[in-house]
Write a structure and sequence with these properties.
The protein has 11 helices and 21 strands. By secondary structure, the protein is an alpha/beta fold. The chain folds into 2 domains: 22-110, Alpha-Beta Plaits (2-Layer Sandwich), CATH 3.30.70; 114-448, Rossmann fold. Helix 10 (440-449) crosses helix 11 (479-485). The two termini are 24 Å apart.
């Protein structure tokens, strides 16, 4: 991506999910039920007796969770087997009953989520890394050999930014979450679609296509001569659409699919050369206004299991600016190595490394470093793939024509930590190409230990083995330095 020459005046909204801390609840009979997420407690307190609700029943293993669903009369929707969660539907009284069943450890509701909208490869030295460094496979450092999972509104795989030299698409798997809303009767929460089907056409459409382009857009020359590329133009893309109705079970179902399929995302019969393993997922969603990290949530359990299996999770830090309190995206505050939260950096349309923190970028609590973002990446006024008729793309003020005569207005600028996060996801693909045997902890260390210390905003302070700040984390990502630290030459 190359930053457009004019600032984007309007910041649009982005994906968000609020998760709270668990609170023990007592039943009328005097027995102690499992802890209940605060959001679900509010829903239970006001729900009509017959209204169907969706709940995630957590237990020590999935068999116990399914037994609790059956015993309470809930209808099973799907399961997250590796983290012991059963998703089910039923009335408020049935949900309450499930919390009283043996072995149930937590009840979590189907909280709404929303998009966090608001790159310069020069500022991050990403283009320089591709030009001057090679990965372990001997090829230029462009993310080759890595797939990136993008959990978002979907993707238009036919967009020219994803076109390979042979005419195929960089999108090797195109999926859609079926657990979209409370009325859904789907039992298979993630369904497979052909890689020529546009899944990014509904409410909020365009966001996912823009984000995918930031991750891995191919080298493209626009009709005005502008040359664009994604952060990792050699990586492959696995898109998982969360659809029009943004609810946490849809997003968690997508993360669960990555957990179960990251090693062979296109199936066991497809070679890694065609469809490489997923090494990182991008998640540009989080709560409006931030909040506290919930270690008992399904999101936390899924991303921690992914880290244990060698897959990183990248989060947009949020677009709520600074009110002096913790505004950061809750799941991004997870201290597990390999889970990264990203603040938005603005290079002022010059490629400078001494720009500023975007005003909209969420800040953490000055007194609690665990709430601070991990690193910064360009997220303001970013040009990437769009379609002019889609809602998100229409908010951009810099429409540009693609390479073909019919590609009118197929690129545009959008701002937000939603745009900063996929820049890091693409860079993570570059770093795993540099060292395929690196662990998520080692990749996170490389990003944070080598970040460029731009000085705008709050001062840096010692946090463990790094210096960090509540608004920009450890600084602006430096791809050349991070890749070299991991062994790229």
């Amino acid at each position: 991506m190359r930053r457009a020459s004019r600032p984007l005046a309007l910041a649009t909204a982005g994906l968000a999910v609020a998760v709270g801390l668990s609170v023990p609840a007592s039943t009328a009979a005097g027995a102690t039920s499992a802890p209940v997420q605060p959001y679900l407690k509010k829903v239970l307190a006001t729900a009509a007796a017959a209204k169907p609700l969706t709940v995630m029943v957590h237990a020590r293993d999935v068999k116990i969770a399914k037994a609790a669903v059956s015993a309470s009369g809930l209808r099973l929707v799907t399961t997250f087997d590796k983290i012991g969660v059963a998703v089910a539907k039923g009335t408020a009284s049935q949900v309450t009953s499930a919390g009283q069943q043996p072995g149930v450890t937590y009840l979590e509701g189907n909280q709404p989520i929303r998009l966090l909208d608001e790159t310069s490869n020069i500022a991050t030295r990403g283009a320089e890394a591709r030009r001057t460094l090679s990965g372990a496979n001997g090829s230029p450092l462009d993310g080759t050999g890595v797939s990136v999972a993008v959990i978002d509104t979907g993707v238009d795989p036919t967009h020219p930014f994803f076109r390979e030299p042979d005419g195929s698409t960089a999108v090797v798997r195109n999926l859609k979450s079926g657990c979209l809303d409370e009325s859904s009767t789907a039992t298979n929460c993630v369904v497979d679609l052909p890689t020529n089907v546009d899944t990014d056409t509904i409410s909020g459409g365009g966001h996912g296509t823009h984000v995918n382009g930031i991750v891995a857009g191919r080298d493209t020359t626009l009709t005005d001569g502008t040359e664009l590329q994604g952060a990792a133009p050699g990586a492959k893309l696995v898109s998982i659409s969360t659809g029009a109705v943004l609810l946490i079970i849809g997003a968690d179902s997508a993360l669960n699919w990555v957990l179960e399929n990251h090693a062979r995302p296109c199936g066991p019969g497809v070679p890694a050369a065609v469809c490489p393993p997923i090494k990182v997922s991008n998640n540009s969603y989080g709560p409006s206004g931030g909040g506290e990290f919930d270690p008992q949530s399904a999101t936390a359990k899924l991303q921690e299991a992914l880290a244990a299996e060698g897959v990183m999770t990248v989060w947009a830090n949020g677009n709520d600016g600074d009110n002096g309190q913790n505004q950061s995206n809750p799941p991004g505050q997870d201290p597990t190595p390999g889970i990264i939260s990203v603040a938005s950096y603005y290079d002022q349309a010059t490629g400078t490394r001494d720009g500023r923190v975007s005003d909209f970028s969420s800040r953490g609590d000055a007194t609690r470093s665990q709430t601070w973002p991990d690193v910064s990446a360009p997220g303001e006024d970013i040009q990437s793939s769009c379609r002019p008729y889609l809602p998100i793309c229409s908010t951009g003020l810099q429409p540009n024509n693609g390479p073909g005569p019919l590609d009118i207005g197929t690129f545009n600028t959008i701002s937000g930590t939603s745009m900063a996060a996929p820049h890091i996801a693409g860079i993570v693909a570059q770093l795993f190409q540099a060292n395929p045997n690196a662990t998520p902890a080692q990749v996170e260390d490389a990003l944070k230990a080598t970040a460029y210390k731009y000085t705008d905003g709050d001062p840096y302070a010692a946090v463990g083995s790094y210096t960090s700040s509540r608004d920009k984390g450890t600084g602006l990502v430096d791809v050349v330095a991070a890749a070299t630290r991991l062994g790229a030459t």
